[in-house]
Amino acid sequence: MEATMKRRRILLAYGSEFGTAYDCGRNVFYELYPHFNIDFFCLNDIHVTTFYNYENVIMIVSTTGYGCYTHDISKFWIDLHKNNYIFYEDMYFHIFGLGDSSYDNYNVVAKKLKKKLKSLGAHIANYNLGNYQHPSMHFTNFDIWKKNVYDFLRKKYFYFQVVSDIPCVYSVLKVDSSLEGEHESSWKDKSANWEASKGEEANREEARGEEANGEEANGEEANGKEANGKEANEEEIEAENGDRNSVREKTNPAAVDHYNVGEHFCKSLQFTKFEVVKNERCTDRSYYQDVRLIHLIAPLNHFNVSSLIRIHPFLDEKRTKEILNLLKINYNDYIIIKKNDINCIFNTYIPTKKKIKILDLFMHFLDLNKIVTPFFFIYLSKKTNSEIHKKKFLQLGNTNNISDYFGYIYQDKRSYYDIFYDFYSYINIDITFLLNTLPSIKQRAYSILNTSQCYKLFKNFNFFNLYYFYINPSFSTFIHFLKINYYLKKNPPNFFSFYTYNGLMVKSAIRTLKYINWLRYKIEHNNNTLFELLVCLYHIDVNQNKKLKGLCSDYLINSKPGSFIYATIQNSLITMNKNIGNINYRIVYISIGAAFSSLLGVIRLRDHLYRKHDTKWEKKIHPMDYSTDKDIIFLGLRNRDKDFYFQQEMENYLHFNYIFVAFSRQPENRFFFFNKEVSQLAPGGETNIDFPHGIPASDASSAAPDVDAHASCVAERTLANRRLRCATRVCEEKAFNMSYAQMKHLLEEKKKVYVTDIISVLQDSVYELLKKNNTIILVAGKSRPFSQNVMKLFANIIKQKEQNKTMEEINLFLKKKMDDFSIILESWY
């Protein structure tokens, strides 16, 4: 019986990149939780085997980029496709997909998920797709799918009505500091009485949802009323707001633990604490784009190449204080939060049963910067006394006709900040309402530039003690033996000499081993790894008066050295191909803008491997320079002087890369072959090209992944430059069947040169690489159609070379390349 009731729980899981699938999941959760026991998680937080504990699994997944799954579904996706599970016949899956039909791989994640689950014997009870290009966006199909899911649950279990009341998942206890010491009861002793203060309405909803357990529910309600009567003199319901979940209790704050941001994120949530040690702007202040090179340190020993750091951002303090002041909420007050519905489990970062400052609650956990979802206006309509505004809110929350919502909210990207600025004088909301209706802050991912072999830092440690760390304990004991032997010979022997000698030897050996073990422990706990990030401030000019900034990029750019951020490390798609570190494979890098940072880690890793392949520099660099089997980098930027952040560093990688760069906004010299220009060096070793503002030479050299970088030696640079000039002349025609002058001639007529134009000019070489099995193609570019345009270009190149093949056959060939990760698009995922 217990196992049957356990399986009657519903698993509600989502995979979301920008929060739309998460909002859809919240909508379903708020409407169903009074009737069912629901577990609400992102897919990465659950294992596929947990599906067997549920009779109904509801999944809402988004497709991002060129058919990629989202960051918070990656682990689940890999596990699902690696193992062959067989699901029970009485397990029912309800899938809704979110996508954009303007992309080629429209809603491909939901489609693949359905196909995979069906192959494992899953029963797909409901399935539908939402399209952002539809006049009603995804809302119409989502409402249809949601209605079908609810009808299915009604037929299978019992009839229920969809709840549109304001959710009361959390209760809030306001701590009055003036009453400290007046009440000696602890928070735990009062938890039962506090739960009873939810009111009769919540109990009726719970009783309606569990008709089979009606007597038990009524008993709990009676006990709750009795407890309320006994403690009526200790609790004061805030009648001014009419909120039954917000209670002011005479409690001793000392009896409740304080919320500590470091302890909560590191211990409770298993995040890692990173210290910001450098935040340097790479672009001139007059330039429209703010790009930062940020260095973080943390005690982590290993991470894979091009791994992702998933950062939990905090809201802007000044803006949050302004909103709370407008809403007449004292952000300096302290509260204690408790989950009301113990039968529902959901993944939340919000600390419960701890005393937390209201400002910290909003800044650390509640995303006021997110675009408002329609169902929030339904709840807001219950918090206004103005009939005009109530009608307006209901119109904005009506998903059957989204014209008002689209025009007022979606087009202008209005966030919760903006809504509260607009309507603060017409609404009466409190902490409990906001806590139960606002979305949680979600992590954002950034690529790590360096490799784990780059930097190992020791913090607050004496480097002279490293001697004792590296010497052999036996050798140290031998040194002590010689000292003791010298002492015994110097002094006249006596009866106790033998015992003194052996005793001192044993003690010295034990002392040496203890000291070395202490040093090893100390070094391990002071060992910090440096992480490099390239962060570009995301901003959109919505209109003349409004500029929208990305929450996480703005948070990182404003982080000062010495401050801390909280994040986790996650593998990217690049790690799916194990041949990334195989120098027998050729890699083609195609990137635009700051997205190139996701590929830089691979380039640095391969540079490290090439340099370690031979023990001597001269033996290694000579054959590599004359080889045509180098990796190829196609890079598209706007401006050479402003956007080529890693120009000086890239000079160190020319011995195993051909580098082609297109500048779309450059008035002249819009294309150059980096190898050719560096080969035109003056005899002294200086280049005849100007280096941009951005990363200085000292940082460029320190950014290289190994201390054996040849650029540090002037003699080696001169030798390398001489060979490079010769090698470039020999290799360029052999590798690409045309000279640099011919390439420039084909591109000089174009007003703007893009990276796809360079690929078209070198299509013969690109075609040969596409057909080879030892080629890996990495594409990185967040420009909306970039990956799609690259894939279409590949298809056209193959079609020109193999005209007898149909486009279906060509697309199937490219799809296989993508499935085995020989072609990786959106490499930062």
UniProtKB/TrEMBL annotation:
Membrane listed as a keyword: yes
SUPFAM superfamilies registered for this protein in UniProt: Ferredoxin reductase-like, C-terminal NADP-linked domain, Flavoproteins, Riboflavin synthase domain-like
Superkingdom classification of source: Eukaryota
Sequence ranges assigned to domain Flavodoxin-like in this UniProt record: 10-150
Pfam families recorded: FAD_binding_1, Flavodoxin_1
Gene: CPR
Residue stretches of biased makeup (Basic and acidic residues): 186-211, 222-232
GO molecular function annotation: flavin adenine dinucleotide binding; FMN binding; NADPH-hemoprotein reductase activity
Statement: the UniProt record of this protein carries the keyword Transmembrane helix: yes
Organism: Plasmodium ovale
Cellular component, GO, one term: cytosol
Known cofactor(s): FMN; FAD
Keywords (A to Z) from UniProt: FAD, Flavoprotein, Membrane, NADP, Oxidoreductase, Transmembrane, Transmembrane helix
InterPro entries attached to this UniProt entry: CysJ-like_FAD-binding, Flavodoxin/NO_synth, Flavoprotein-like_sf, FNR_nucleotide-bd, NADPH_Cyt_P450_Rdtase_alpha, Riboflavin_synthase-like_b-brl
EC number annotated for this UniProt entry: 1.6.2.4
Classification lineage: Eukaryota, Sar, Alveolata, Apicomplexa, Aconoidasida
TM segment ranges: 466-488, 583-603
Protein name: NADPH--cytochrome P450 reductase, putative
Chain positions covered by the region annotation Disordered: 186-249
Enzyme superclass (EC): oxidoreductase
